[in-house]
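dumping this here before i forget
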Amino acid sequence: MTARVPGAAGSPQTLDMMVNMGPQHPATHGVFRMELAIDGERVVGLIPHIGYLHRGSEKLCEHEIYSQIITLFDRLDYVSNFNNELGLVLAVEKLMEIQVPERASYVRMILCELNRIASHLLFVGTFALDAGAMTPSLYTFRDREMIQALFEATSGARMMHNFFRVGGIKEDVADDFVVRVDRLLGELERGIDEVDGMLSFGEVLLARTKGVGVISGPDAIDWGMSGPCLRASNVPYDVRVDEPYCLYDRVEFGVPVGTQGDSWDRYYTRVVEMRESVKIVRQCLAQLQPGPIMAQLRRIARPPKGEVYAHAENPRGDFGVYIVSDGGERPYRLKVRPPSYCNLMPLRDLVVGSYIADAVVILGSLDIVLGEVDR
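structure:
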């Protein structure tokens, strides 16, 4: 797959072949392009290209009132909609010094942790496809569909929920919400165990992922990685633990970490995280009590002049929102700190030196969403 041309003294020289992977390719998980320089099957150079899905979301936010911005955040990372909405409302509430009712906080946590499980299920299924296994994706999509059905029954929308509000949530959950979620958790636990037993320690997956795309903890920190990608490198940083928000300081859960920082660790960290999210949801259900779902504030939020930064633990990592307010009903400036964008930073270092097939697995292990990368 390389071209040989005569050298200055007649000796052969090897020219690397350039191969495009994407921007329309199933292995890139979105409109992402990797320009690969290959020598045989070995990757010797990589140039990543982003921006194919750029929509100017941050600038659009500056022309909408705060309640309208929530719909734009739904579309940033369209696999973790509730988590995105939470990042925005936390920032505005912090600037306005709003105390959110406990019931609303617990409902937010339940929905966000279920969203984390749904996101990780999608990752596990597509990662299995990247590694050559199709059957696990059928199981993970089955279980994810049950979560999406609950989300639709709660918010009225399957994905673009527009459910969280500055000061609380749009409306109270249905009377059978607790019973339905509890039943769902049992189904999810069985499904997680099934796909874990089917995939995680299989000979083929281990051969495809162990020792592939290794990044150390210090290097992952230097690159700005976060979430499961960082914790897989044995760095136990989780915003929910290190800087608790909502009522995460009232629930107990573990922070799974890897040891090698390879593609398998990044995969299995998410498998274990799903079980921890089930624990969190169960504790929230036990502590959920009747009460108000909205703080007392004017219908159209008008934060005071100032600036604020708030962040939360998205399924992909540390999701931050920076807002500058001029005292009006719209933000003067709004910027997002996106985990997927930062987790992409070490891609060249991870891929160069590996095989083309490994490049697919390494990119898949980062679990990026291009809507949030490009914005």
